[in-house]
Design brief:
This protein is of the alpha+beta class and about 350 residues long. It has two domains: about 15-40 and about 185-340, HIT family, subunit A, CATH 3.30.428.10; about 55-180, HIT-like (HIT family, subunit A, 2-Layer Sandwich), CATH 3.30.428.10. Helices cover about 30% and strands about 20% of the residues. It has helices at about 1-10, 130-150, 185-200, 205-215, 260-280, 315-320, 330-340; strands spanning about 15, 25, 65-70, 80-85, 100, 105, 110-115, 155-165, 175-180, 220-225, 230, 240-245, 285-290, 305-310, 325. The strands form three sheets. It has a ten-stranded antiparallel sheet, sandwiched between helices. The protein has a three-stranded mixed sheet with strand order 1-2-15. Strand 1 and strand 2 (about 25) form a beta hairpin. Helix 2 crosses helix 5 and helix 5 (about 260-280) packs across helix 7. The longest helix is centred in the last third of the chain and has 22 residues, at about 260-280. The termini are far apart.
Length: about 350
């Protein structure tokens, strides 16, 4: 019996994401600590001619939005600047033109693709920016989503950041991106549908329940303020996957008020700095999960931000099965991030 008990303790765990129903394998028998990963820290930016620097404004399409200290449109003096992507995934002009081609469906590639240039300082990283600078970036997100959602062609607006080459960043200069889509992505719809099913059964928001559960249990809690909770999610797909959840129920990010954005700037900076310290400046993606923009406020969905360090690769098993294998239990990841002790 002793041998069997020890063997069972070392078995991997299958964990079910309570929102989407997605299963994840937590490989507890080969748990990896931060120094077990073969890491390639994102190198410090190098001084080079960059289209996002001061004096290079003519190298980007004309700006859509800018917060400035001085200067006019497309001139130096800005603090945050938003421009159309020079190589957009989708085009802003035209009609959707939904149509069939035999048994297949298609439409025109209508959408918006914008770049949020977060600072004129080419050598900075997000963790280097002040809380006020990050807060202005968040205000730019809010302002652009609020503007674009007035275009009824757009059903979902994705805000995301790629940091480091391994995360898909093609330029070093601190920036994030926005893509407005004429359809709701399948992964978004699965998350919204899963939250609605829970609400229909229990008449409670599943994200609000997760916040209460994690704040009480504490094992996957990274940090919290009066407005936000940061956790390593129970069924984390990736090592050190981290979620930032607002405590106040709100389905749409763009409806967040000024105090919420101010506290989120502190929380985002603190969390990125913790990951940088524990994982030695990893490449990462972050994505803001928000409700579809044409929906009214939803009682069952809760916007949040997910940060995914790039420590492992998705390979054949993951693509073939839809399962993810996470070699670091979220309880261990949360412990490392809690104990790093940075503000």
């Amino acid at each position: 019996m002793r041998v069997l008990a020890r063997y069972n303790h070392d078995l991997p765990e299958l964990r079910k994401d309570p929102i989407t129903g997605r299963w994840v394998i937590i490989a507890t028998d080969r748990a990896k600590r931060p120094n077990d990963f073969i890491r390639q820290p994102v190198p410090a930016p190098t001084a080079r001619i960059c289209p996002f620097d001061y004096g290079s404004e003519h190298k980007t399409p004309p700006e859509i939005l800018a917060y400035r200290n001085s200067g006019g449109r497309d001139q130096p003096g800005w603090r945050v600047r938003v421009v159309p992507n020079k190589f957009p995934a989708l085009g802003i002009e035209g009609d959707l033109d939904r149509r069939g081609e035999g048994m297949y469906d298609k439409m025109s590639g209508i959408g918006a693709h914008e770049v949020i240039i977060e600072t004129p300082d080419h050598m900075a990283t997000l963790a280097d920016l002040s809380e006020k600078q990050i807060e202005e970036v968040l205000w730019a997100y809010k302002e652009r989503v609020s503007d674009l959602k007035r275009d009824r062609r757009f059903r979902y607006i994705l805000l995301f950041r790629n940091h480091g080459e391994a995360a898909g960043a093609s330029l070093e200069h601190p920036h994030s991106q926005l893509i407005a889509l004429p359809v709701i992505p399948k992964r978004v719809q699965e998350e919204v549908d899963g939250a609605k099913q829970f609400y229909d059964f229990k008449e409670r928001c599943i994200f609000c329940d997760i916040i209460r559960e994690e704040n009480t249990a504490g094992t996957r809690l990274v940090t919290e303020t009066d407005r936000f909770t940061v956790i390593a999610p129970y069924a984390a797909r990736f090592p050190f996957e981290t979620w930032i959840l607002p405590k106040r129920h709100e389905s749409h990010f763009e409806e967040a008020d000024a105090p919420t954005l101010a506290n989120l700037s502190w929380m985002l900076r603190s969390t990125i700095r913790k990951l940088d310290k524990v994982l030695e400046r990893p490449a990462y993606n972050f994505i803001i999960h928000s409700a579809p923009v044409q929906d009214a406020p939803l009682t069952y969905y809760h916007w949040h931000l997910e940060i995914i360090p790039k420590l492992t690769k998705v390979a054949g098993f993951e693509w073939g099965s839809g399962f993810y294998i996470n070699p670091t239990p979220p309880e261990e990841a949360a412990k490392f991030l809690r104990e790093v002790g940075l503000p």
